Amino acid sequence: MLAFLAVVGGAATGLIVAMFRLTLAGASWWRAKLFVDAHSIPVGGPLLVVVGCAAAVMCAAWLVRRFSTYASGSGVPEVAAALSGVLPPAPLRRILLIKFVGGILSLGAGMALGPEGPGVQMGAVGARLLGTTFRRSWPDVQALVAAGAGAGIAVAFNAPIAGAIFVLEVLIRRFDGRFAIAGLGASSTAILVSRLLLGNAPDLHVVVSGPIAATTGPLPYAVAATWPLYLALGALAGAAAVLYNWLILRALTVSDQLARWPVEAKATAIGAIVGAIGWFAPNLIGPGDDISQRVLAGAVIASEIPVIFLLRFLLGPTSYAARTPGGLFAPLLVLGALIGFLSGSVCQDLFPTLAIEPEAFAVVGMAAFFTGVVRAPVTGIVLVIEMTAAFTTLLPMLVACFTAMLVANLMNNPPIYVSLRERLTDELQSKVKGSR
Which of 19, 411, 27, 45 is nearest to 235 (CA)? Predict the structure, then answer.
């Protein structure tokens, strides 16, 4: 029965999250059209863009505060807390609706957040509804919730294996046969359904632009002489990941310190910042899939990457502090691709005889930075390989993820979702004490 319900829940998650992605694509198209049309308005164009983005983010924050505070953020800490019994029961159908609508408003406005956040929580909530409807025991409901969350990841990135691994490596942090069966069943059927709507191709395509001159075939295997360079890339990604984790937590702390500001006011201010950036550089806001694609296609100038990286590095934590629906995965992958491509470009100039492809470093950088932030190397490696089909980078990924994880652990920095879950637990305990 557990396996059957996991398959049914996965199919439902596949449909819901695929519809979310399609709706988000439509919202992003309208945002781009607004920006283009606004540039033809000589005086009020910038104001129109800023007000439009701020209003959408404000509405998302209002929906979360008014109807379901559990629908804020990425959803991963909330799902983990629900699995452990820390999070009290909440209106499930309300969370599902608010996560969908709020996610479209927030991400559609250009916030630097990922679609996997709404996907994780919508999948988990749908699976929990299914388990309670069929009156399953709590252990079965736990397995279904975790499987639904993994299916949400799978559809958000078109990465079914990564979705199943996410359940074991991030949510429950151990191997469990029941969770594995449920996770595999849910992710496989979710992808089957979603690909009927979204297509079968990987989300990202690598275009080699180095010594083998702009071909779309697989990246070449890395020669042994480049492995020390991938070790260095992993160390750099690990150190940057520690700083990024600190910035996320610091942004949330600053937001909490502005207690006199209503939630909507803080979200409006952040939305206005996103709109202002979008007026000057519309391609640099939003979840960032288009940025990652341009990097992997070699369609960026290496000298511009530090500016783009710094902007996205600050915009991600700032967007997360708005407490609107949205995940962390997609922004992490953008930053990793930027670090990797810039490092690869430098190494290509320094070591011309090694036939280095910056795009290969970009792919490896995505997995390394993800590993440094989330501390889930297997999920990161499989996720990036499934998204890019760059299977020839597997060994360099192992090397870089090893050093990224080592550096982050030596710096005594906990995984971001552990820190966020602890924050959530503290907030719940404070509310309980305050009610007494």
Answer: 411
